[in-house]
Amino acid sequence: MTSARVLVTLATFMIVGLQIALFTQWRFGGVVVFIIWLWPVAVGLTGVTSLALFSGVLAGVLFDAQTATPFGLSALVGLALGYMSSRLGKEGVGDLDSAAWWVTPTIAAAAGGAAPLFYVISGVVAWDFSLWRGSLVNSMVVNAVAFFVLSRPLTRLALALCAPAMKVRR
Amino acid sequence: MASDRSRRRLFFTGVIGTLILVTIYVSGGVVAGAKSAAHAVVYPFSWAADFVARPVGHLVAGVVNYSDIVAQNQQLRYELAQATMRADENASAAAQLRLVNQALHVPVVSSLGTVMALVTTNSPTNFSATVTIDKGQDEGVMNGMPVMGDGGLVGRVIDTSPHSATVRLLTDTGSVVGATFGSGATSVLVSGQGLNNALSVTQIPITAALGVGSLMSTNGLQGGLFPPGLPIGRVSKLLVNPGASNYSVTLTPSANLNNLSYVDVVLWEPST
């Protein structure tokens, strides 16, 4: 479990690095793709809840440090996505090897569509009612499409990194 | 194997933890230290990703857009020549204006010092419109200073570190700037509507002399948040609904906020 946690931590740092260096610059339809939210979904689909929650919070906190938006909100969204996907992962839904090829991408796309909406709703917690004025619909659509495309390789990576923890679980 | 109950407990512990973080942030607590620590942790990874990906990105963009770049270069040369000519023509008028404004004790941007800065990072999220620049406290950049670039006001410095600063753009939903137009008789508030969106303007009575293309600039009020006369944007849509007593105005920023490379930080401290 410890080695899996170390690997997931390193991978999370790299994911946040990629988010800041690349995905911030590559805007599709004028909006940013949030792979920091796809990552906990991918880890969650392996079924290891604690790592999914950990990666969601870590990626969110590290990302929130780079932005002017309320600190902790991205972490809250990452946490929720990690938890929900790990529930599915635990039931074997989204298993890359046994389920149909489109199951994982569809789950990820649903998460990608819901995440920006959840973020904006969470803004109420931070007493920030202005977040909805951004490109919410664009953000939902673009992230859903991007999550659909990127989910399989990222879930494959998560499976490789979480393998030690999955063995312990079994 | 963790039970469902322990997983749920872990989840709710995480939720409470993040809510505490958000609460500390909202109440203005000590989050700055945590933010800069997280910044330092992420920096090597983002630097490495950028180091590897940037040359590849430039190569691909160069190959794909070569003919466009050549055409754009010619266009820019022509525009530069035009601008140089206009600048020469305006030099004497500007000098006269400066003398008049000095006599009236009105601060003029051209008489204030500026620090040129490179935009290093665009807004990393869809929910705020900010950029990071490569100049900070050590170069004299302080919180609240206006930032100009590309033909108009870009925004305002909201966070500084020794060698970088974060600038909140005019289009950010939290940005509000006092503005005026024409003879300066009417003051309005210009607020951001999110990245890539036009600016909104508070109600302007239809008796005001305003048309599409009218320039709005800072009014110097708001307790001196901005010096007067900084161009903000031009009216792009002007509607008068039947029976209404106010214009419905949409403003396009003078500066191209989607394509900033260099900006000037005006060394102006608010309420000085």
Structure report:
- The complex is a heterodimer of chains A (170) and B (272).
- Chain A is mainly α.
- Chain A has helices spanning 2-23, 35-44, 49-64, 73-90, 103-122, 136-169.
- Chain A is globular.
- With 272 residues, chain B is of the alpha+beta class.
- Chain B has a 6-stranded antiparallel barrel.
- Chain B starts with a helix and ends in a 6-residue tail after the last strand.
- Chains A and B meet through α1, α3, α4, α5 and α6 of A and α1 and α2 of B.
CATH topology of the domain at 112-272 in chain B: Thrombin, subunit H
Portion of residues in beta strands of chain B equals 25-35%
State the helical fraction of chain B.
25-40%
Order of helices and strands of chain A: HHHHHH
Q: What is the share of helical residues of chain A?
A: over 70%
- SS class of chain B: alpha+beta
Widest sheet of chain B: strand order?
1-2-5-4-3-13
Rounded to an integer in angstroms, the radius of gyration calculated over CA atoms of chain B is 23 Å
Question: Compute the gyration radius of chain A: what is it?
Answer: 15 Å
Strand/helix succession of chain B = HHHEEEEEEEEEEEEE
SS-based structural class of chain A?
mainly alpha
Q: What count of structural domains of chain A?
A: 1
Largest interface: A-B, 57 and 56 residues
In short:
Chain A has helices at 2-23, 35-44, 49-64, 73-90, 103-122, 136-169. By secondary structure, chain A is mainly α.
Task: Set down the secondary structure blueprint.
The complex is a heterodimer of chains A (170) and B (272).
Chain A: H1 2-23, H2 35-44, H3 49-64, H4 73-90, H5 103-122, H6 136-169
Chain B: H1 4-26, H2 32-64, H3 66-103, E1 114-121, E2 130-133, E3 146-149, E4 152-161, E5 164-169, E6 176-181, E7 187-191, E8 199-201, E9 204-205, E10 215-218, E11 231-239, E12 246-253, E13 262-266
Antiparallel strand pairs in B: 1-2, 1-13, 2-5, 3-4, 3-13, 4-5, 6-7, 6-10, 7-8, 8-12, 9-12, 10-11, 11-12
